[in-house]
Amino acid sequence: MKKSSKTIIDHIPDFLDYCEVEKGLRDNTQKNYARYLHKFTEWQKAKNLTSLLPHQLTSEHIWEYRLYLSRFQKPKQKGFTGLEFSPTLKKSTQNYYLIALRAFLGYFVAKDIVSLPPDKITLPKGDKREKTLKFLTVEQIEKLLTSADATDYLSIRNRAMLEALFSTGLRIAELISLNLEQFASIKNKPDLELGIIGKGGNPRTVYFSERALNWIKKWLSVRNSKSKALFINLQKENTDNDNRLTPRSVERIVKKYAVLASIPLFTTPHTLRHSYATDLMTQGVDIRTVQEFLGHKNIATTQIYTHVTNKRLRDVHRQFHSGKNMKN
Predict the structure, then answer these.
(1) Are residues 120 and 142 in the same domain?
(2) Are residues 161 and 291 in the same domain?
(3) Each residue's pLDDT tens digit, 50-100
């Protein structure tokens, strides 16, 4: 092990290169690491620790950073009521920052650079309320989808996106990564199986229903762009980034139609993924198959949906087989 003369901040670009070349992580993961470590850099600047070297990092520094995250407040904003508020970071969000920092310390270990061991960073227990699985009923999904009335160029694109999300269970990053060429031969097809590269670089197959594919066909019939992206930003043409919609844009679109459909405001693109999985489980699809549909590496991640379906089975049993109608 050797001591490095470069500051911790100066090592961050090297760490991101390491993630790309040696770890083979995807661009989105690297961008997230960069964003989360930027918060650590901000903390160092606030504490006048920008010259801190890897071997000088201590458990006390980590503790102070955790306090910083715990007490962090965003700039005051004005809510719908006109009152100012300063939301703090959720515990789950704090975890992301700590996970990124732990990965960064793991880089020092891999490069034989003396630093604080990664296992010195433990993750806080999350708020149980944050772990509640939020999903929509089939009726709510139908309201959401039909709220995009598809009377113009913009709403046809949005309807096609909403249908694609619920039909496939795609993550938002997977949706915006879809390319036009992947749908070049759908003209006479009733449905579509499409191979994609999902989270962590893992390949899987997703399935577009006849209904979803029909809306994509409608979108392609009015789409007019040289961009190779399937779903494009209609406000401006920018071929440098394929004119793709950003994750934030898709989130705003889903939120817009959630309001129009008068369904829960917690609705996000990921809510549609949860709803897709919950619907499959409710219909009796086995958990291993749902795992494959979702592209979960570990089946423990998929098991969260069993809690929902188990509760539904219990409620059905209570309603129809409680023994209330039997004679004593």
Answers:
(1) no
(2) yes
(3) 999 999 999 999 999 999 998 887 655 554 445 454 557 888 788 989 999
Q: Which of 102, 273, 274, 276 is catalytic?
A: 273
Q: How far is CA 317 from CA 51, 153, 278, 308, 314, in A?
A: 64, 47, 19, 14, 5
* Domain range enclosing 165: 138-319
- pTM assigned to the model: 0.65
Pair (118, 217) in one structural domain: no
Q: Which of the following is catalytic: 199, 204, 217, 255?
A: 199
**Residue 296 known to be catalytic:** yes
Last residue of a domain, one of 128, 152, 180: 128
Choosing from 171, 223, 244, 274, which is the catalytic residue? 171
Q: Is 129 annotated in the active site?
A: no
